[in-house]
Write a structure and sequence with these properties.
Structural class: alpha+beta
Shape: globular
InterPro entries: SCO1/SenC (IPR003782), Thioredoxin-like_sf (IPR036249)
Order of helices and strands: HEEEEHHEHEHEEEEH
Helix content: 25-40%
Keywords: Copper, Disulfide bond, Membrane, Metal-binding, Transmembrane, Transmembrane helix
Pfam families: SCO1-SenC
CATH topology: Glutaredoxin
Protein name: Electron transport protein SCO1/SenC
CATH class: Alpha Beta
Largest sheet: 6 strands, mixed
Distance between the termini: 68 Å
CATH architecture: 3-Layer(aba) Sandwich
Organism: Turneriella parva (strain ATCC BAA-1111 / DSM 21527 / NCTC 11395 / H) (Leptospira parva)
Radius of gyration: 19 Å
CATH superfamily: Glutaredoxin
Strand content: 15-25%
Number of domains: 1
Number of strands: 10
């Protein structure tokens, strides 16, 4: 009798844990670019503010203070992540890494700009660890963090949503986006969502550079 009660208790606990995980996943899934995660939005020459003209200072993974205007005369591919996100952020980083491997010429004068949704200025070495986790190296990779107000303004500039917690639970919900800019900071392409067709994604990014 006791064994049966214990078994039912473990089953109920398992169901409760599964529901918590499912609720967090649904929250993240529904916030991805305001559409389901697998809905691929591709905007050609979207009406967005010039990246180089954004006012604010950032800290990179080396602890160096930079402004986005410092990246003039370089094509950039930008994205936004939570450092500890284990859901869509690994997929975002994998897409960038695959693009880097597929397009080595981009590394010559292009930049991958990875903005964090959280303020990590006190520990920029965490940003370096973030890159190490995804096995990417080189000066063409920059992870940038700033104060909460600057991060919010930048996210609002590109109509991004993000939320680390919902009802006290860690969910790391956020829009998934890749923003391609030319050497003058003009946004030439914007990809929202995550595309399973990597060949198409790579080809469209190359066309935008």
């Amino acid at each position: 009798m006791q064994d049966a009660k214990a078994t039912r208790l473990w089953i109920l606990r398992g169901i409760a844990a599964s529901l918590m995980v499912a609720s967090a996943y649904i929250a993240w899934y529904s916030m991805s670019a305001d559409r389901p995660r697998d809905f691929w939005q591709d905007k050609l020459k979207p009406q967005r503010a010039n990246l180089l003209q954004f006012e604010g200072t950032f800290i990179d993974q080396e602890g160096k203070q930079v402004r986005l205007s410092d990246f003039a005369n370089r094509n950039t591919i930008s994205t936004f992540v939570f450092k500890d996100c284990g859901m869509s952020c690994p997929l975002i980083m994998n897409d960038l890494r695959l693009f880097h491997n597929d397009t080595p010429e981009f590394a010559k004068d292009g930049l991958f700009l990875i903005f964090t949704f959280e303020d990590h200025r006190a520990n920029p070495e965490q940003l370096k660890d973030f890159l190490t986790r995804y096995h990417v190296t080189g000066n063409q990779w920059r992870v940038l963090t700033s104060d909460a107000e600057t991060i919010r303004r930048l996210a609002d500039t590109y109509a991004l949503q993000y939320n680390k917690t919902i009802d006290g639970k860690l969910v790391y919900a956020h829009s998934n986006v890749f923003i391609v800019t030319d050497r003058k900071g003009r946004v030439t392409r914007e990809f929202r969502g995550l595309d399973n067709n990597k060949a198409r994604f790579f080809d469209e990014v190359k066309k935008s550079l």
